[in-house]
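Blackboard transcription, Thursday session:
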Amino acid sequence: MKILVCVKQVPDMESRFQVQAGGTAIEEADLAFRVNEYDEFAIEEAVRLKEKLGEGSELTVLSLGPQRVAEAIKKALAMGCDQGIHILDTASRDPYQVASLIYQAVKDQDFEVIFTGMQSQDLGYAQTGLLLAELLGIEAVTTVVSFCQEGDGFLVQRELEGGQRMNLKLQAPALFTCQLGLNQPRYPTLPNIMKAKKKKITQLEAASLAPPAARSQTTSLRPPAKKGQAKFLEGDLGAMADQLVAELKAKSLI
Amino acid sequence: MKALVIAESREGQPLENYLEGLSYAKALGAEAALFLVGAAEALPAFAGTLFLAEVAKHLEYNPKGHKALILSAVEQFGADLVIFAHSSYGWDLAPRVAQGLEAAQLSEVVELAEGKPFLPAYNAKLRRQVETSGKLVVTLQGGAFAPLKAGGSPQVTALDTDRQSQVEFLGFEAAAAKELDLTKSEIIVSAGRGVGKAERVQLVRDLAAAIHGDLGASRPVVDAGWVEHSHQVGTTGQSVTPKLYIACGISGAIQHLAGMKGSDFIVAINKDKEAPIGEVADLFCVADLTQFLPILTDKLQG
Amino acid sequence: MEATREIYWNIGTEALTTLYLLTALAIAVFIWGMAAQVKTLKLGRPLKRDDQFWKRLAYALSQSLAQSRVRSKRTVGGLHSLFLWGFVVLFIGTTLIFIQADILAPLFGITFLKGSFYLFYSIALDLSGFIALIMILGLAARRYIATSLNLPKNPGDFWSLFLLFVILVTGFLIEGLRIAVTEVNQNPELARFSPLGLLVAKSFAGVDARALRGLHAQVWWVHMVLVMSWIASVPFTRLRHLVLIPLNAFCADLGPKGKLITLDLEDESQETFGAAEIQDLTWKDMLDAEACVQCKRCEDACPAWNTEKPLSPMKVIRQIKELAQEGPTAKLVAKIGAEALWACTTCRACQSGCPAEVEHVPKIIEMRRNLVLMEGQFSGDEVAQAMDQMEVNGNPLGAAPATRADWSEDAEELLVPLNEAEVVYFTGCYASFDARNQKVAKNLIQLAKAAGVKLAILGKGEKCCGEPARKMGNEYLYQALAAENIASLQAEGVKKVVTTCPHCFDTLSKQYPDLGLRIEVEHYASFLDKLVRAGKLKLNPQAESVAYHDSCYLGRYNDQYEAPRQLLAQAGAEVKEMRLRKKESFCCGGGGGRILAEENQGTRINQKRVRMAVETGAKVIASNCPFCLTMFEDGIKGADLEGKIIAQDLSEILVEALASRQPKEKQ
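(Written on the board underneath:)
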């Protein structure tokens, strides 16, 4: 079985984000990057599936982005993916473009199972996986919290609000977007980190994959007008409690 | 502008989150219609057109079928905008519909400023404005738009399709009883070392109960054995991002801040005005917990 | 008449053949037995411990004959030493007899056991025998009667002690019988030089000399057979440590103290990292296991054991010995338990107090290395998360690397640009990001400024030194972080570094050289102490009572006990010493990467330590380490000691003393 896992490299969410002069992107210079957390669960599930299927299954990890993205691919390789595809791209893309580029890169490879994270931590589109499935014309299940391969099919659970779940059954080919808690992503062992250094990463230029026009464009990026400026309430406790309750109600938090 | 608001039903009952979608449509001055895969016996309150497909045939989960139904509603209504809740139903369906319409999608819209939608970015540290052209699909962050008060009965336009997913829907499963998962909590009320004594954690529990929130705790409180570890928030506990986080007597050690500062709205209750929790708090009540919490709990219950 | 005695009196030289045969047999059994005991050494990996012969020999003698570590525990150590020295004198005495009677006299006609030397010889042996006898009784009482000490009891050990006792008793009998026949009446002056022997001899007063001679011959043979049996039995009882401990001391790690082996991670022939099985340990680890006498000193000193954690360093060593019997592929963690391994704070109290020269900490780290590098296991999710943060953000706290120098923003006038700096302050993660410890960082730059030192920081170029990751077994992450720090330091041409964290200090000074960094590194205690001595840093004494806590990594790892105390004295503080101090200091609980981990079992180590400080009556517990400070702040709150004592860093006390002298600079 040919398995694909798509991962995104994102800045660590603790980073201090500074908006670039143009006002539509962030300064990357001081950022620390990591594999999107949701995608780590996707990698782990893909590796588990590959290990379960044993001989004859092959797991490819794909990522899109500038040169730094190779680190994310290497991490996935160290976790157990067999080979990598790096779509080299320095442009800012919307989810439709990203999905189209991935589609162009993998459409002839007959992947039977594709895993992605349910969303990215940085921009949180939650679209790329589904758009890729739409382009490939395959079934897709989002927010998977339980995954089980049985015979030629899959039994999966989607997570709904409040911890409720939905049980589904489907056949390959299919795409799954993974929710946190699906599994426990492994910490790569040293021998696997070393082996990963020798695994093949195919580089593709985004331009050569004929990206379509974007459907959306970021026009501004700004901090929400609040954090770091706590409003202080002092004095009479009863009045303070009233004021607090009023504030929370105004924001429909309670 | 015409907006199709997608309503949801769960286990036969319509959910209320469509009211936020109506509110969004109203804020844009759009004419709204509703879409629902549901049952004629349980219709949402709405004085307008409702495109209704039979849930008995189309099930509550059947993305290909629902997508085809929505596309047909968009066409019949002539909608420019399709509004979903950013819910398990919405985020599963919105991109499929967007692709069907060859339209852009904006996920988890959190505010409208001068008619322009803004999206949270980078752990809600930034807000992003996005321009699109043509038709548009949006999903709305839960609670970002105050629900519209709707009444009346809809005029139903029935929809049908033969398309359906190859995914077999086997049914729902109730949330399994497991160790407390604070990462999914919408409201967390946390106890810090400032509560002073094990007995006083009860004051924090009472407040949490009064606003239907979950109890959280900082490391020293857990270490002291006052609260079980499953409640711990911070780098050595759980990292949480609720809508509302109330930190009671938490000074704000970096390990704790790291686990909760992504919360949408943070209230600090602390007698030390200089406590570092102030750096992330939106609202800082300078007060003694022992006196203030009972008053606050009382007001919330009353 | 010159004082002497007839060697082999009443026995005759014809008995010697039998005696020689017996001796040869005993020595053969001894050698065979020892060889069998140490055959497990072959299971271990190679390790170079035979360089610097004379230094090693001197060290082995200091630990064996001079008993320096044994005596560090005064009472019982003293008893043990007297016991040993008693036997050493008896052994030398016996050897002298052998030299004279069996070599010098028959071959060259030379005798030396005569005259005043003989008198000295006689009384020395007599008294040594007596001391040894008393000590045997004392040590036996400690092990077998004082059951509260819970010392291991083993039948073989009991018989070994009993044998020694009988040997001494029969020795005095022989002496007494000989004196009764040859000296009591004939040479009473000489007999006075064998007071114990004389006492025995007098008890035979009036008995017929022939009967005494007969008895003497019989007891002599019993004595000799017992001695030879004892020699033959040594390898099979606790007393094998007579050989193994000096040997282990000879093979000791000559330092630098606590310098870990830097793994070659690029070595492709290496299939496994760290220790999973017996064969992954070194031969020295096997020797350690054989040399351990289970004296419990390590256990008594261990902060984990003393707070009900599942770790006893003694048990780990015993388990390694048991596993070695099972063969090279016996699994370590399955027997020892990961929980025990993760509980170690690497405080080195076990190792620095061990009279058998056992190296506990490196073994635990080797096993942790295997768990992390080969199995991807950690002591808990929180540690895995911290590792992830170190990997991505370069600090375990998950703070944005770009904000590393933010603490210095409002104190920029105290620092100079890197290219003008005499000394670079390697701030460390806690002083960079943790609000409490940021005060320490600010204090240091203030003190350096007051002393006229041009100090700079690396800022964003600095990462975690990697120490907590390394001690938790993650050598890969440690080396990755170290490489980045080394590149930063070298790129800036840094010649000298000062740290406020003893973990950074130990790592940069001792561990980084393996990775190519060789610069001068100092902890701020010694750095400031020198400035005070040179008259550059002037302190105005402020009265305060302080319980000074020796951090493990400044103390036991680097033997710096005096500089911080000097500084406290200069600042006018009255140092109230805790019962466990200096070499015996009790860890705060944050070492060995445990600062990243939950402490879920037993009493909290930090609370125990803080209580010890309160016992001194001091109002402050002061340390020199960000982990200690963090642990004590938590410990004081957790143990409900707020208002009784506060936790401070040494630098805070110094700045207070500084501020009063130069009030203008405070603003």
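Lecturer's comment: Chain B touches chain C at residues 193, 219-220, 223-224, 229, 235-237, 252-255, 258, 276 (CB under 8 Å).
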